[in-house]
Design the sequence.
């Protein structure tokens, strides 16, 4: 047992580093998709999350998310028993805090892709901590904390499909609407400025996602299943995106392939430890096609989600969460949970998954709207048209990512 505990802790150390590495990878991915005059701004937005979020996490966030294990958990928010990490001294417990902090870091960072090219950095500085404590923390408590009401439904989310991807995407939609579209959108928008950056960012995200999905699992059974499912889903997602592009008359391209990979990784996140490898391929394949089709929603609903956070993370998260209700199979890892419809589990799990998705979207939309409106009426959210023309690298940071 000591050897297994040592192995689990060693793997969790590696997984923590992998997930932390995902945020710089996200900055590269988003930076490559954005215009060259806004790349430094995107890097700043993501690196800021790496600074402010872990501090708030150890001061307040961890306790409000996972507190009250031994008390009367109300199912909606944790207590303050672990504020400032009070009482948490065991190395294994501190490692768990660090691992979970990496998830808290990347979740608000995802939203940066929706507001790219037009949000004041000063507004971002306030938005991230407010959103973390008022939106991410309670939703994550519902989904993952012992006694959390979504977990008790029961609803299945192994690594953050609802708490992270759907939650962030709902917020991204709200902030896109509050900010309004970029200058000249949609007719005057430029294509991604640096495709090699997109590929490098995608590779880092794919690597990090192995720790993201498999990090919390025991190394004997759950972690290997989550890891291979993550690998296979991403492969299926790439093929699914290319296929639907081909059927739509679009030639295979780097942005599409990378988008398919990320869409599938999002979709397999909640399901990675609950389904078999063949189901993982199908989940990635199906989700990527739905995400591709969802990109057309932007013009229909008139919201400028700059880098498709809603279409990729929102739709991918929803598809992945719902498909658990069909493919969940507890024989894969001998876990005890309600099985999916295709494994004689009936419709109960599908209903629970749908309820978790709807409530998460509803709460995130409402709370994010309040935060966004307060900032809009006080310090303002949007840079001027002149700043957009010059680029946020210069107007917000007095720098440039390129010297030519």
Sequence:
């Amino acid at each position: 047992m000591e050897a297994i505990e040592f192995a689990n802790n060693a793997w969790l150390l590696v997984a923590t580093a992998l997930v932390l590495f995902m945020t710089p990878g996200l900055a590269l991915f988003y930076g490559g998709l954005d215009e060259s005059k806004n790349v430094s701004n995107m890097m700043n937005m993501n690196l800021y999350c790496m600074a402010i979020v872990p501090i708030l996490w150890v001061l307040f966030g961890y306790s409000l998310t996972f507190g009250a294990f031994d008390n009367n958990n109300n199912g909606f928010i944790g207590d303050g028993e672990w504020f400032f990490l009070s009482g948490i001294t065991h190395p294994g417990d501190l490692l768990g805090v660090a691992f979970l902090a990496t998830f808290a870091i990347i979740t608000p960072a995802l939203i940066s892709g929706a507001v790219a090219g037009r949000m004041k950095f000063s507004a971002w500085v306030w938005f991230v901590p407010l959103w973390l404590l008022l939106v991410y923390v309670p939703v994550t408590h519902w989904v993952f904390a012992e006694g959390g009401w979504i977990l008790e439904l029961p609803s299945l989310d192994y690594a953050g499909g609802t708490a992270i991807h759907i939650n962030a995407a709902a917020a991204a939609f709200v902030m896109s609407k509050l900010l309004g579209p970029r200058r000249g959108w949609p007719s005057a928008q430029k294509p991604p400025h640096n495709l090699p950056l997109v590929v490098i960012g995608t590779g880092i995200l794919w690597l990090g996602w192995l720790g993201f999905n498999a990090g919390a699992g025991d190394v004997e059974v759950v972690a290997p299943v989550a890891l291979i499912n993550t690998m296979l889903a991403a492969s299926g997602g790439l093929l699914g995106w290319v296929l639907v592009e081909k059927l739509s008359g679009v030639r295979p391209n780097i942005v599409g392939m990378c988008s398919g990979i990320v869409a599938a990784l999002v979709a397999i996140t909640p399901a990675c430890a609950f389904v078999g490898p063949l189901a993982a391929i199908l989940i990635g394949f199906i989700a990527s096609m739905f995400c591709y089709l969802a990109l057309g929603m932007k013009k229909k609903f008139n919201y400028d989600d700059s880098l498709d956070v809603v279409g990729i993370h929102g739709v991918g998260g929803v598809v992945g969460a719902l498909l658990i209700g069909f493919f969940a199979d507890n024989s894969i890892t001998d876990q005890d949970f309600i099985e999916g419809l295709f494994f004689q589990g009936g419709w109960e799990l599908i209903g629970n998954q749908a309820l978790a998705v709807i409530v998460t979207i509803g709460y995130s939309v409402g709370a994010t709207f309040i935060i966004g409106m307060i900032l809009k009426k006080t310090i303002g959210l949007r840079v001027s048209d002149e700043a957009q023309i010059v680029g946020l690298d210069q107007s917000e940071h007095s720098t440039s990512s390129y010297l030519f």
Remarks:
- The longest helix spans residues 2-33.
- The radius of gyration is 20 Å.
- Residues 267 and 320 are 4 Å apart (CA to CA).
